From TrEMBL:
It comes from the Bacteria. Residues 29-80 form the Zinc finger CHC2-type domain. Gene3D superfamilies: Zinc finger, CHC2-type domain. GO terms for biological process: DNA replication, synthesis of primer. SMART domains: ZnF_CHCC. The keyword Iron-sulfur does not apply. This is Zinc finger CHC2-type domain-containing protein. It holds the Pfam family Zn_ribbon_DnaG. Keywords: Metal-binding, Zinc, Zinc-finger. InterPro entries: DNA_primase_Znf_CHC2, DnaG_primase, Znf_CHC2. GO terms for cellular component: cytoplasm. GO terms for molecular function: DNA binding; DNA-directed RNA polymerase activity; zinc ion binding.
Amino acid sequence: MNLFEVVKASINTQEAAQAYGIDVNHYGMALCPFHNDRRPSLYVSDDHYHCFACGEHGDVIDLTAKLFDIRLYDAARKLASDFHLAPDKPLPEAIRRKKKHNTKAQQLRENEQLCFSVLNQYRRLLLDWEKRYAPQAPEDVLDERFVEACHRLPWAEYQLDILLQGDSYERSEVVSELTADGYIRKLQTRPREERYHE
């Protein structure tokens, strides 16, 4: 393995970002250091980063090079030094096990982010339905979308609150419920179905 491969296999982007002073929240979002960011627009995962505002993106080596304004090779050397790696030796068993564990943790985080994103879209759809399909007179037949909005909006907001403010156990429970039987994927299609019917 060359220096670049060892660094990428051993250090995840989120670890490096936090080690170099970027405060990443549990959704993987942070204030972008590459522009005047007021709201977190930088997404940092285990293997890459991407800013939704300024478009900066790359892997752990790109991030380090950009942060310290150094060449990629120097960034890889800095990471190897800061994280005590020996590029000419095979990866230790502890790191291989950690990478396997990171993959599980990464999957959990990705599921959590998917659930949050889909629920947020669904909530916006329900808010729209609540206004758009509200009965205009007492004798009007209730539109099924208005009824769904009345029933499901409190539920969606409660789930979002847990994903935003709950502890790791509560969040994982919500994610388990939402991902069971592909429920979150079905919810994901609701806005598209609505556009199709319009």
